[in-house]
Amino acid sequence: MTALIEAIYDMVDQNQTACRILILGNTNATVLMRMIALAKADSIAYWRKELPGASETELEMMYTHLSNGLMHVVVEGYDKYSKEEMIRFVSRVVKASLSLFQSPQRPLA
């Protein structure tokens, strides 16, 4: 996920005009969904190795949750936050979410 965020920043930096029109100035769901779809298979494959106790359904839901929420944070915060702040935030959120599946599950109270 962090690599995806870095790639988005690099892409925007290299193609300022087009990206500002297509992505930053227009949070069109179609464009964002295509971007999110590009990283799905690789992200889930990586998480599957790292989180052997997580079910396929949990991996899919986690990807949907993280990618959609974090993509909007990046798009809406591109000019508001620095690249470093964004990558640090995304990394912390992803690590915290993954940690929920790394320890043995305890029943909810």
Secondary structure elements and pairings:
Blueprint: H1 2-14, H2 16-24, H3 29-50, H4 56-77, H5 83-99
Helix pairs in contact: 1-2, 1-5, 3-4, 4-5
What does this entry look like structurally?
This protein is mainly alpha-helical. The protein is built from five helices and no strands. Helix 4 packs antiparallel against helix 5 (83-99). The longest helix is centred in the middle third of the chain and has 22 residues, at 29-50. The radius of gyration is 15 Å and the shape is elongated.
**Which consecutive residue ranges, at least 5 long each, have pLDDT under 50?**
none
Shape descriptor reads elongated
> Can you count the beta strands?
0
Total helical elements: 5
| Distance linking N and C termini | 31 Å
- Determine Rg (CA atoms, Å): 15 Å
The helix-strand sequence is: HHHHH
Q: What does the average pLDDT come to?
A: 77
Structural class: mainly alpha
Bin the strand percentage: under 5%
The biggest sheet, with number of strands, parallel, antiparallel or mixed sense and barrel status, is: none
Helix content: over 70%
Short description:
The protein contains 5 helices and no strands. It is mainly alpha-helical.
Highlighted features:
single chain, 109 residues, 5 helices
